[in-house]
Specification:
The protein has 134 residues and is an alpha/beta fold. It has five helices and five strands. Strands 2-1-3-4-5 form a five-stranded parallel β-sheet, sandwiched between helices. Strand 1, helix 1 and strand 2 form a beta-alpha-beta unit. Helix 2 packs parallel to helix 3.
């Protein structure tokens, strides 16, 4: 899949990018809502991994604009500021998954494999029960 990672924290962006690319996906990384819109206007993405709180806007503001540009794209939101109200608002906007940080690496891997239509496989070198928290 072509995945756009939207994460303003450089370390998190690098870790996510490395993980997602190692799972066989084409990855592009941006740091703001405006960069997200610019990328989405120029390229088709199969999936957005979207941090909820960005420096210039929130996912609640960004998602309707993304859907206008790429109606069928799927969105997974990631947040370190988890709340039921935020999750409710994001689900109403049509996200595919809502993930609170820290999340389990294996959980994200399984979700991406499912979205890509692939059978889930074990992570080489890690036992299946390893939590791999990101």
């Amino acid at each position: 899949m072509k995945v756009l990672i939207v994460e303003d924290e450089v370390l998190h962006a690098e870790m996510l990018s490395g993980m997602v690319a190692s799972w066989g996906h084409a990855v592009t990384v941006v740091e703001s809502g405006q960069e997200t819109l610019e990328a989405a206007a120029c390229r088709k993405f199969d999936l957005f991994l979207l941090d909820v709180f960005l420096p210039d806007m929130t996912a609640m503001e960004l998602i309707p604009q993304l859907k206008a540009l790429q109606e069928e794209t799927r969105i997974i939101t990631l947040t370190g500021q988890n709340s039921r109200e935020t999750e409710r608002k994001l689900r109403e906007l049509g996200i595919s998954y809502y993930m609170a940080k820290p999340f389990q690496r294996d959980e994200l891997h399984s979700i991406l494999d499912h979205m890509a239509g692939r059978q889930r496989r074990s992570v080489p070198g890690l036992p299946d029960n390893c939590p791999n928290l990101f």
